[in-house]
Design goal:
Radius of gyration: 34 Å
Number of helices: 6
Distance between the termini: 93 Å
Largest sheet: 6 strands, antiparallel, barrel
Order of helices and strands: HHHHEEEHEEEEEEEEEH
CATH class of the domain at 96-161: Mainly Beta
Strand content: 25-35%
Number of strands: 12
Length: 281
């Protein structure tokens, strides 16, 4: 290193004290060790920074790759419309009773009909090891739920969430045989795709027969997607009249459209009577 070279090239070097050179060389060796230590520290810092850079690059790459799947020509109109509808006080009140149903197999939607009872689809909770429901309030905790009753043929399940004595927001169900007309406006609120608490609007088409089901189901002209299973179909009076469970291609106005399918609340009245007493106004 530089210190050793200076000693060797010094013309005034002390010939009478050879130990002085040895001491100087020893100091030079210490400087070399310090320089080596600095190099090692620099290498470690470079490796650490490189690893951090690669991790950040991988994360950004995943986000960039995943972003078009979340925000695209299908989901953006859905989000804009939901935001518009959610500015209405009644829609916001409905949303407060719509829960996220999570299991070890995935997620879906449900809605609270009072007393901790949650309506959802049977296929949402089928073969699950656990069931958790979460109300939309960010301060709200998640609640463990158990299957209280079900009708697999209807694809309906009623859960009982462990909410104690709390009075949480609920949606009243239409338990009468009140008739509805084609073209009647409805709202659907659920957790489709990668989102939660999405409100959409549509209209009733008709009752349609579905292969493998004994009773016809509601067909909706409304944008329904994966994750909407268990969403309430809410009429203009604020009552749930159906439970979304699937989609199908049907003919409507001389064209084939993808319609949402819903189980009429009237079809599950016997199950409701056995578990949930009517709400007294």
């Amino acid at each position: 290193m530089n210190g050793g070279k200076r000693v060797e090239n010094d013309p005034n070097r002390n010939k009478e004290n050879p130990h002085e050179d040895e001491e100087w060389d020893f100091e030079a060796e210490e400087e070399e060790d310090e320089d080596d230590g600095g190099s090692s520290a620099g290498r470690r810092k470079w490796i650490r920074n490189t690893i951090i850079f690669l991790l950040v690059a991988a994360l950004v790459g995943n986000i960039v790759a995943f972003w078009p799947q979340i925000y695209n020509m299908k989901t953006l109109p859905l989000l804009f419309k939901s935001r518009e509808l959610s500015s209405q006080a009644e829609i916001q009140s409905y949303k407060e009773a719509v829960v996220l149903v999570s299991t070890d197999n995935g997620k879906g939607t449900g809605f609270h009909i009072n007393g901790g009872y949650i309506v959802t689809n049977y296929h949402v909770i089928e073969d699950s090891g656990y069931i958790i429901v979460k109300f939309p309030d960010e301060r709200s905790e998640s609640y463990k739920a158990e299957l209280a009753g079900s009708d697999p043929d209807l694809d309906i399940a009623i859960l009982k969430a462990d909410i104690g004595d709390q009075r949480l927001p609920f949606i009243e169900v239409e338990r009468s045989n009140e008739q509805w007309e084609p073209g009647e406006p409805v709202y659907v609120i659920g957790n489709p795709l990668y989102f939660t608490q999405i409100a959409i609007e549509g209209e009733m088409i008709s009752l349609v027969p579905i292969q493998g089901r004994q009773k016809p189901v509601m067909a909706l002209d409304a944008p329904v997607y994966s994750g909407n299973s268990g969403s309430p179909v809410i009429n203009e009076h604020g009552k749930a009249i159906g439970v979304v469970y699937a989609t199908a291609d049907i003919q409507h106005h001389d064209q084939i459209i993808e319609a949402g399918l819903a189980v009429p609340i009237a079809d599950m009245e016997s199950l409701l009577q056995a578990l949930v007493p009517p709400v007294m106004n």
